[in-house]
Amino acid sequence: MGIGASVPQQQQLQSTAMSKVSKLVSGLITQNPVMVFSKSYCPYCTRAKSELTKRKIAFKAVELDNTKDGGDIQAYLQQLTTQRTVPNIFANGHHIGGCDDTLDKLASGKFQQLLAGKKGPFVVVEKPAPAKEESGTESERTDTSATTPVPQPEGKTSAAAPVAQPEGKGKAVAESKTATPPVEQSPAKGTANVFPPAA
Questions:
Q1: Torsion sign across C-alpha atoms 59, 53, 73, 93
Q2: What total number of domains does the chain contain?
């Protein structure tokens, strides 16, 4: 019974470890234009890295034999690319392959094209957060009366209650202040209904 109980725990630990490795590998491929998964003693890895250096192409190399999770990384790369061997090389999120593939693509210029072109399928794009650009309800977002001057019809402004224009930036607000009609009005306009004309 004790053995049976530990199997799910082991599977959970393995799943957690692979999740950690997958995040690590995805991050390395995404953050580095040229990513080389290598082993320090591998002559094919040395040759591929030398060719990249000779062509002045910067790269990040992870030596799997000198890395704590090297075996797990190599196993995950096999799942990801179906390639078990090293070097395992990526350019701009595109899987290049091993040493021979890299040398061929460098010689043909395909490597450089991939490096300068669109991101490849192995680049992990962060999912955007839910849209929270604006706060408040839709009516609050569309209500601009607090910041936009409201034009007043002629004859409705009285001396007792002048309309306050909001302070703001821009030429439009300044023009609206200068374009406001004077407070004093002729009897023929706004006051005709209040005081009848003399007979």
A1: positive
A2: 1
pTM for this structure?
0.58
Give the separation between CA 92 and CA 137, rounded to whole angstroms: 42
Q: Is residue 129 part of a domain?
A: no
Residue with the bigger pLDDT between 198 and 27: it is: 27
Residue 9 is assigned to a structural domain of this protein:
no
Query: Beta 60-63 vs 34-38: how paired, if at all?
Result: parallel
Place of tokens 């490849």: 120
How is residue 144 written in tokens? 């601009």
Greatest alpha-carbon span in the chain: 114
Phi, psi for 149 (deg, rounded to 5): -60, 135
Residue 146 lies in a domain: no
DSSP one-letter string for 15-80: HHHHHHHHHHHHHHHHH-SEEEEE-TT-HHHHHHHHHHHHTT---EEEEGGGSTTHHHHHHHHHHH
Which CATH number is 50's domain given? 3.40.30.10
Answer yes or no: is 109 within a domain: yes
The pLDDT confidence band at residue 139, using thresholds 50, 70 and 90, is very low
Token couple for 40: 């320090």
Domain housing 76: 15-116
